[in-house]
Amino acid sequence: MGDANVKFAPLGRPGNAQSPSHSRYSLESSAQCVVRHFFVADGMRHMKACVLAAVLAIVSTGSAQAYTTYLKPDEFWTSDADVVVEGAFANHFFTPAVAIAPRLTVLHPNGSDQPFRSVAVSGVTTRLETSLPNGGTYRVSTGEQLGAVTTLVGVDGQWRPLASGEAVPEGAPTTSIQTVTVSDVYVTRGGPTRTVVDRTIGRLAIRPVTHPNQVLTANGFDIEILYNGAPLANTAVVIYAAGDSDTMVDRYVATGADGRAHVSLDAPGHYVIAARHRATAPAGSEAAVQSHTTTLTFEALVSLPRIVAVPEDAPPERAPRRRSGTRNY
To answer: How far, in Å, CA of 60 to CA of 12, rounded?
Structure first.
């Protein structure tokens, strides 16, 4: 989702030696953009432009990078001992367009990473099947997945991708950027627990304050955005309903100084929330700048499900098959 015409304020390292005067070319995180415009006159219009810039800032380096990832189970709250989770890139939720890599993690209610039954890529969808042997909340996550590295060139105060085989214009600054994506979903069997909910995965994390399987439409969803384990203030969180395009950014909330935000919901159903943030990459990374997108899929309910006891002597999981499917990664 690149946009060569979006101008960003300082952030990132140039790829060739440049003086500080070239900061007009550098990249700005969505949080900085929100801070810059939130309290000025006509601030709402500017804030929406910043959120749009944050969405479009993920530079497309291939078909998968032009979409947003999601994970979606067949049931979010179940009394059954099994669950199937669909994973894909999409530009309309929840219509899969490109299968995600089958490198998934299943965390059990006690926080342990346990084998799952199978994972397979079929067409444009990745399908994971796993047992839920005990009561409590499970978490399925992609973990951090790194995208391709793209070289950007600064021309007339704006960044754009450098085309394949294109020479860098004389005197133009360059930098490099890489996408980092994380997708999470929670499934509860019998009754909710918080061990896996409060575990941080990835540098940019969405931590549910409201239990993600107990979100009531009337009450909304309280969340916290963390970056490197610390609250990320004044950053935008975009809310997508089923059927929405991932370029629809009119529905969003901004985090407060404590990194927290309240997501209001119009109707029951399935939703994705997405946080995006650009930052200088850690030392030793493939690119100078990393563009993070983290998503969480959840169900908004009319009423809370009934909590039921799950027998302690639930059957053990079947032998895992971690790498099945027709595609090599």
So the answer is: 18
pLDDT at position 253 is 97
Please choose, from the candidates 182, 199, 228, 183, the residue with its C-alpha nearest in 3D space to the C-alpha of residue 137: 199
Which amino acid is located at 30 in the chain?
S
| 105 has a pLDDT exceeding 70 | yes
Q: What is the pLDDT of residues 117-131, one digit of tens each?
A: 999 999 999 999 999
**Reduced to 3 states, what is the DSSP secondary structure of residue 275?**
strand
CB 85 within 8 A of CB 73: yes
Instruction: Enter the DSSP assignment of 92.
Output: B
Question: Taking 70 as the threshold, does the pLDDT of residue 319 lie above it?
Answer: no
User: Would you say 182 and 144 are in contact if contact means Cβ atoms under 8 Å apart?
Assistant: yes
Element (H, E) at 251: none
pLDDT for 20: 28
DSSP 104-154: -EEE-TTS-B---SEEEEETTEEEEEEE--SSEEEEEE---EEEEEEEEEE
**In the structure encoding, which two tokens stand for residue 95, read together?**
């219509």
Residues 6 or more apart whose CB falls under 8 angstroms from that of 42 comprise none
Buried b (16+ CB within 10 A) or exposed e, 74-91: ebbbbeebbbebbbbbbe
The residue with tokens 């346990």 is 114
Give Rg (Cα) of the chain.
20
pTM of the model: 0.81
Give mean pLDDT, residues 141-149: 95
Reply yes or no on whether the pLDDT at 83 is more than 60: yes
- The C-alpha atoms of residue 111 and residue 195 are separated, in whole angstroms, by 6
Cα dist from 180 to 36, 183, 324, whole Å:
24, 10, 24
Tell me how far apart the terminal alpha carbons of the chain are, to the nearest angstrom: 23
